[in-house]
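Q: Second attempt. The first request was missing the SMILES, so the protein and copper (II) ion are both included now.
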Amino acid sequence: MFRSIVLNKKKRILLTTLLAAMIAGSLFLLYRPSVLSTGAATSQIRTIHMVTGEFKATTGDGKEIEAYIWHPGTVFVEKGETVHLVIRGVNGESHPFFIEGTDIKGEVLKDRETRVTFKAEKEGTYRLICLTHPDKDHDGPMIAYIVVD
Ligand SMILES: [Cu+2]
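A: Got both inputs this time. The predicted holo structure:
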């Protein structure tokens, strides 16, 4: 009699613990941030978010200098992997661009998102170049590097 009560108590604790773990696991799967579901380990197409930014400074003699940028400036993609690049325009009105070595081109406008699909079968570094700000003489260089490895 005494023995069966002890066993039942152990089972109850075990069952309660198991149930709590299952509920916690279910809640995590239901409410985890969507950022966690875009990892490379899944078979889904990965989305890489970028924005346009701007650096500004004044030189010692009072001259204002600036450079537009893609942020992040370097992204990493697996060879043969398809990714969506979603680029939001924050600084600058318009950034027409192309990706060197591909036929991908587009334009990023302020407060808009531009989406392109990128896939490279060849390893290497692909430059995402803004045609308006390609170098320092045109408020750049606004160039991001897509490293395919
Ligand atoms: Cu630009």
